[in-house]
Fold this sequence. Notes:
This protein is an alpha+beta fold. It contains 6 helices and 12 strands. The chain has helices at residues 98-116, 153-169, 173-183, 225-246, 289-294, 303-312; strands spanning 3-7, 12-16, 47-50, 73-75, 79-84, 123-130, 142-148, 188-191, 195-198, 209-213, 252-257, 271-276. A 9-stranded antiparallel sheet has the order 3-5-7-6-11-12-10-9-8, with helices on both faces. The protein has a 3-stranded antiparallel sheet with strand order 2-1-4, with no helix packed on it. A hairpin with a 3-residue loop joins strand 8 and strand 9. Helix 1 packs across helix 4 (225-246). It is globular.
Amino acid sequence: MSQLRWHPFLQQWVVVAAHRQGRPQMPENWCPFCPGSGNVPAAYDVYLYPNDFPAFGGDEPFHPGTATEIGVATGAPGACDVVLYSPDHYLQPSQLPIEQWSKVIDLWTRRSSELWAKPEIEYVSIFENTGVAIGVTMPHPHGQIYAFPFVPPMPAQELQGAKESRDKSGECLHCRVLKAERSEPIRVIAENDGFTAFVPFYGRFPTEVHIYSRRHFATLANMSGDEAKQLAEMISVVRRKYDNLYGFPMPLMMVVRQSPVHGDHPYFHFHIQLLPIQRSATKLKYLAAVESGNGTFLNDTRPEEQGERLRAMPPSLGR
């Protein structure tokens, strides 16, 4: 099974999961997520599928104290799930009806609550990888849920920034960002009563979009029924605009940001980040040495221009 190894220079955990080398790579004429495969029910709407090659799991406990040591490994408890958006193998996420996105969000919420109840879990990450260019190994429409025994470095850094800002100003940093984007909506691409979608001023990826809740809350479980429907609508609109931008499905990563499981985080604000790597109709953005080796992102697009372009895209599919 997996091991966690401490990187003493970056001060973060690395997951060593060599068993994942055996997972299928874009298999032809067979899909484990399709009805009839024997791996899923003969009929389903949305479905939670335990990952066959989990990065987290097993009985060996996590010992955070090993973070002070060199060359010491510890267990990687947790869970890895696949969220099947639809039984239709060829359906793009942008083609999901709003009602289907509502069912996906209900599943996200239910599974998040189940994982939050496990004492070994510190963080629940919901995410999606879409497109061969991203590195997807199964084309069936799906996302994933990972339950971590620690708070991963990127959410931890965002949390620290939000906390420091609230300590100084007394206000939620996310609320301040949302207010600033809406006051001069050149980068706002869509909104409804519950959520606003915008290309952030500081976006790192080409045509990066964040979806912020209009009301300050921390987790999916904190949403009202109306807000859950409004979130489904907003995800649907953004995904359709993305695929209309260049006339083909946008390769991207989607990350749902919730508060950590333990502790009090009043400075945290629920949001979703969509991170595309398509910088033009014919060019991809590769995370090369500057990004991967130095941690500084070069954005090849101007957020204001991309916000204007996305705002002009129809919220229904043109193909």
